[in-house]
Design brief:
transferase; globular; 2 domains; 5-stranded mixed sheet; binds 5'-O-[(R)-(carboxyoxy)(hydroxy)phosphoryl]adenosine; alpha/beta; about 20% strand; Nucleotidyltransferase, domain 5
Length: about 325
């Protein structure tokens, strides 16, 4: 079955066609990042307007690149939560009209479930159950993926998402938005070990995380250096920061795997492209004897193929929606 998939939860408008949940026929991602970079972060109203401008032409392009005509499409999948509400609503409204017009099922897809499903596209042999570390701009979750549509959160951030923390740290280091990738590149220039940064624990919830203290520490360090005219070792701070994030994430994933008995671990979301986190996960999984799946960077960030992949399994599970389907800024996985 060929699924036409839409993703518009933040600042990427993405449309694509995925066959049987595993084969990407097209995946057109139009990023608005350059526009939001002018403001140092995503401006929700601008994001919504840009989605409106782009989505129709991208749909034509996605069908063309997939070699599909409208009658080949068996269902429409769309991100309906979580995300910037205006942005999600654009994709959802458009997807509804396409599904209605084609007379095919409309499949609602949770954005984080989509990120996890990116692994099905990169690794054909992968099937649940497994453990997923979902780390993006808005979410940081350790998820027990019991089955394609049966997921339980084992650990989560209590405040900022890892990606939000990367973006703020990058900003005070003078790097452009979105800062995760530039900070990663800067961090590669240093072995670190210069700055002592906090590693928060959540009392009574060993698998939960907190990144706000780490974010504040980096901001304070940068501001203090500026005030006293001290030269900041930017590469070392970037490296030590990335290490602090990784030191928060990786031991918790290993502990979650031990507790749940899972021996397969997948990473997902934009931050899963980070080189320090990837290397630490690889090392820890080799040591523990777990199988690790790390999707390529293009499948870590927001895209439509991941929505088409998860959409297929939601469809098989009988999850369809009517025209009354709403969008949600926050929604449990
Ligand atoms: O998954 P994603 O594209 O969008 C959301 O669903 O949120 O994630 C975007 C986040 C941004 O915060 C971006 O800075 C971060 O992923 N990111 C990275 C890297 N590449 C992207 N963070 C750390 N290292 C990277 N290499």
């Amino acid at each position: 079955m060929k699924i036409l998939a839409f993703e518009s939860s933040c600042d990427e408008t993405a449309v694509g066609v995925v066959e049987d949940g595993r084969r990407v026929l097209s995946d057109i991602v139009a990023s608005q990042a350059d526009l939001h970079a002018l403001y140092g972060g995503v401006v929700p109203e601008i994001a919504s307007r840009k989605h409106v401008e782009a989505i129709s032409a991208l749909t034509e392009q996605a069908l063309r690149e997939a070699g599909c005509s409208r009658k080949d499409i068996g269902a429409v999948a769309v991100t309906y939560a979580p995300g910037l509400i205006g942005a999600v609503l654009v994709g959802l409204s458009f997807a509804k009209s396409v599904a209605f017009g084609l007379g095919v099922p409309l499949i609602p897809v949770h954005h984080i479930r989509g990120h996890i499903a990116a692994n099905y596209l990169a690794f054909p042999e992968l099937t649940p159950p497994f453990l997923a570390l979902a780390i993006s701009g808005g979410n940081t979750l350790i998820v027990d993926v019991r089955d394609y549509t049966d997921m339980v959160i084992l650990g989560a951030t209590r405040d900022d998402a890892a990606g939000e923390c990367f973006d703020k740290a990058a900003r005070v280091l003078g790097l452009p938005y979105p800062g995760g990738k530039p900070l990663d590149d800067l961090a590669r220039q240093s072995a670190g070990g210069v700055y002592r940064l906090p590693h928060a624990q959540v009392d009574g919830a060993p698998l939960d995380m907190s990144f706000s203290g780490l974010k504040t520490a980096v901001v304070n360090l940068a501001h203090h250096a500026e005030q006293v005219g001290e030269e900041l070792d930017r590469a070392a701070l970037a490296r030590d920061f990335a290490q602090a994030v990784s030191d928060t994430l990786v031991p918790r994933v290993m502990e979650a795997a031990r507790q749940s008995g899972r021996d397969i671990i997948c990473a997902a979301g934009g931050v899963a492209a980070n080189s320090v986190i990837r290397a630490d996960l690889e090392r820890a999984c080799i040591e523990a004897g777990y199988r690790l799946y790390l999707p390529p960077a293009a499948l870590c960030g927001d895209n439509s193929a991941m929505i088409g992949a998860q959409g297929y399994y939601e469809y098989l599970a009988g999850h369809q929606a009517g025209m009354e389907l709403n969008a949600y800024a926050n929604l449990d996985i």
